[in-house]
Every structure is written in C-alpha cells, then in structure tokens.
C-alpha cells in the first residue's frame, strides 16, 4: 500500500490568483443553495457547525464540514473569530479549508480559507440582493468597514448600478480609510442612522453584539443583508426591523440555533434563500426584506473546489 502524496498547500496569494472574479462564484453558489434547500435529494450533507468558545480570549473556533454529491466535493473549514481583538496584526476571522478526495478520504489540499470566506459570503449576499432588492435600488449602505465590507463593496459595485454608496463604521477613521481604498465612490457618514436613511439596500457587516440597525430608520421596501451577529446572544438588528420585514435565511436550522437576531426577536422565518433560487418560495421584493446570513459550509466547498480546479488546470 503506497502512502498518499503530501497535500497541496494554497496560501492566500495563490487563492487570490486562482480565484476567478467573485461574481463567477454566483452560478455554483446558487446551485449549492438550491441543493441545500432540497433536503436529501439535493445531495448536500452539511451538519450544523460546531462552535468552540475560547472564553478566556473572547474567541471562537468553528468546524464546518460538508459534502456535495453534485460537485463530488468533500471539505471541512476551520474558522476562528475573535471579538475585541487587541492584536490587530491578524484579521478577526481566519480560516483554512481542507479538501478531501471523496473516493478514498485522502486529503488533497489545504487551502487558505480567509479569502474564500470573504468572497463567498459577499457573493451569497449578492444573490439574495438580486432576488430581494426593490425595483429601483439607487442607494447602497454598508455598516462596518472591515474585511466583509470590502468584499461586499467589490461584488455589489461590480454587479449592481448604485448611484450612491454610503458607509458608516464605529470608528470614523476606519470608514475614511475604507473610502480611500476602494475603487469607486463611497460617502462616509457620521452616524449609522445617516448612512441608513434613504438606502435601498443595506449591508450589516460588523462585530456588533447589540443592535446597530433600527427599524425606524429603514426605508419601506428596502432589502437588508444581515451578515454579522452569528452567535445566539449577539444582535445587529433590532426587534422592529426583524419583526416587520419578510425574513429569509441561508439555513433555517442554523438561524434557529445561532442567530441572536432571529432567536431573540422571535421573528418568523419566511424562506431559505435556496428555496427562492429554486422558485419554491417567492422573492417578495416589494416588501422590506431581511436576508440573515450565517455562512454555510457548502459555500466553502464549492468555492474551494473552484480554486482547486483552477489551480489543477493551470499546473
Ligand atoms: N454570514 C457569514 O457567512 C459570515 C459572517 N461574518 C461576520 O461578518 C462580520 C464582519 O466580519 P469581518 O468584516 O471579517 O470583520 P472585521 O473585523 O474585518 O470587521 C468588523 C467591523 O466591525 C466594526 N466593529 C467591531 N465591533 C463593533 C461594534 N461593537 N459595533 C459596531 N461595529 C463594530 C469594526 O470597526 C470593523 O469595521 C462579523 O460579524 C463576522 O462574524 C464573517 C464571515 C462570514
Ligand atoms: O461562515 C463563516 O465562516 C462564519 N460565519 C460567522 C463567522 C464565520
């Protein structure tokens, strides 16, 4: 019996190089979301992620395995995320994706997961927005100015034609740096309320643990991508916005286990995004809508496969 070859290692620069434009992730992600929401016949096996709190340091380790029969891809992502980090030399979220040969369990590649997490999360928000944004969507608002704010800005300005992008961050300095670094317009706002007022599409990408977005500020018919607050006792959105919007989620099971915004508000889930993609649930884009994103392992599986296949075809 021969020993399996050493797994390939693809670091973040390599991933960036082999990562086609984030918008190319959209078709495989739509298929994955639809398959996930089809139950066993969709061929997606994705248990609820395990999250290990590291209380002493306000950190968490998430373990996110998934298999996609359609893609014949088997991965697990390990992701750490830390609140109020004193050490600013490393990102608050760091991840690695392990890609296995599903035929025999051999580890084929160890792939930087930080870039994958940033790009796939933004691409999924873009899918939700494509279905749920109002017919006229001129103003985009981003609350937060970190890694996800950047990846969301990039794909949202590539795919949609907003006339204005308003940004707010807890520290204004970071919002200013964000506005200077992006390739396009971004208007820095002095308060979250100022940024949200008049926005047609709102993205919340902060590490907040109490609400930063209030229903009374939100324009009727707006679409909100709620990306942060991934713990059962964390919030980004207040009860008003949660209870008075049509609520879409990536995974019902995850939302009812992990999302403080869903659990603590008692808001009723209308549909999974995958059900909208499949056409079994409507996209009520004329209403105020919230897409509560928690992040799914299957998104990492299809993104890692894309990177690996691209690397394989060029080597
Ligand atoms: N749904 C999903 O698939 C994923 C969600 N996330 C979540 O998205 C959010 C943003 O992630 P990253 O951009 O990677 O983080 P980051 O650390 O790069 O940026 C976080 C931003 O939030 C701001 N912030 C920190 N504490 C705050 C507070 N208490 N109130 C208001 N703003 C605060 C910071 O100034 C910073 O601009 C996090 O909550 C993260 O857990 C991250 C990855 C995937
Ligand atoms: O899907 C993901 O990787 C994460 N969701 C919240 C923190 C990390």
Automatic annotation (TrEMBL):
Belongs to the ornithine cyclodeaminase/mu-crystallin family. Pfam families: OCD_Mu_crystall (PF02423). GO terms for biological process: negative regulation of transcription by RNA polymerase II; sensory perception of sound; thyroid hormone metabolic process; thyroid hormone transport. It is an enzyme of class 1 (oxidoreductase). It comes from the Eukaryota. It comes from Sphenodon punctatus. PANTHER family: KETIMINE REDUCTASE MU-CRYSTALLIN (PTHR13812:SF19). It catalyses: (3R)-1,4-thiomorpholine-3-carboxylate + NAD(+) = 3,4-dehydrothiomorpholine-3-carboxylate + NADH + 2 H(+); L-proline + NAD(+) = 1-pyrroline-2-carboxylate + NADH + H(+); Delta(2)-thiazoline-2-carboxylate + NADPH + 2 H(+) = L-thiazolidine-2-carboxylate + NADP(+); (S)-cystathionine ketimine + NADPH + 2 H(+) = (3R,5S)-2,3,5,6,7-pentahydro-1,4-thiazepine-3,5-dicarboxylate + NADP(+). Its EC number is 1.5.1.1, 1.5.1.25. Homodimer. Binds the thyroid hormone triiodothyronine (T3); T3 binding inhibits enzymatic activity. It is found in: Cytoplasm. Keywords: Cytoplasm, NAD, NADP, Oxidoreductase. Signal peptide: none annotated. SUPFAM superfamilies: NAD(P)-binding Rossmann-fold domains. One of its GO terms (cellular component) is nucleus. This is Ketimine reductase mu-crystallin. One of its GO terms (molecular function) is NADP binding. InterPro entries: NAD(P)-bd_dom_sf, ODC_Mu_crystall, ODC_N.
């Amino acid at each position: 019996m021969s020993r399996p070859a050493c797994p390939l290692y693809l670091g973040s620069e390599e991933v960036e190089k082999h990562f086609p434009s984030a918008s190319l992730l959209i078709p495989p992600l739509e298929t994955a979301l639809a398959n996930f929401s089809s139950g066993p016949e969709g061929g997606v096996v994705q248990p609820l992620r395990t999250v290990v709190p590291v209380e002493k340091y306000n950190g968490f380790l998430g373990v996110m395995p998934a298999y996609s029969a359609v893609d014949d891809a088997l991965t697990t992502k390990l992701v750490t995320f830390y609140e109020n980090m004193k050490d600013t030399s490393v990102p608050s979220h760091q991840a690695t994706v392990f890609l296995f040969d599903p035929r025999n369990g051999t580890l084929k590649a160890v792939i930087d997961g930080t870039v994958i997490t940033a790009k796939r999360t933004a691409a999924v928000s873009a899918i939700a927005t494509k279905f749920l944004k109002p017919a006229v969507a001129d103003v985009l608002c981003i609350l937060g100015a970190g890694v996800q704010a950047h990846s969301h800005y990039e794909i949202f300005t590539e795919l949609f034609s907003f006339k204005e992008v308003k940004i707010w961050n807890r520290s204004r300095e970071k919002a200013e740096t964000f506005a200077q670094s992006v390739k396009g317009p971004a208007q820095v706002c002095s308060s979250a309320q100022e940024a949200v007022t008049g926005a047609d599409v709102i993205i919340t990408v902060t590490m907040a643990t109490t609400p930063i977005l209030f229903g009374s500020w939100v324009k009727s018919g707006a679409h909100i991508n709620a990306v942060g607050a991934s713990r059962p006792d964390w919030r980004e959105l207040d009860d008003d916005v949660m209870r008075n919007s049509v609520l879409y989620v990536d995974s019902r099971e995850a939302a009812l286990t992990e999302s403080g915004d869903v659990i603590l508000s008692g808001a009723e889930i209308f549909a999974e995004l995958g059900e909208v993609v499949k056409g079994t649930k409507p996209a009520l884009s004329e209403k105020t809508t919230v897409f509560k994103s928690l992040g799914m392992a299957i998104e990492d599986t299809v993104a890692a496969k894309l990177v690996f296949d691209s690397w394989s075809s060029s080597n």
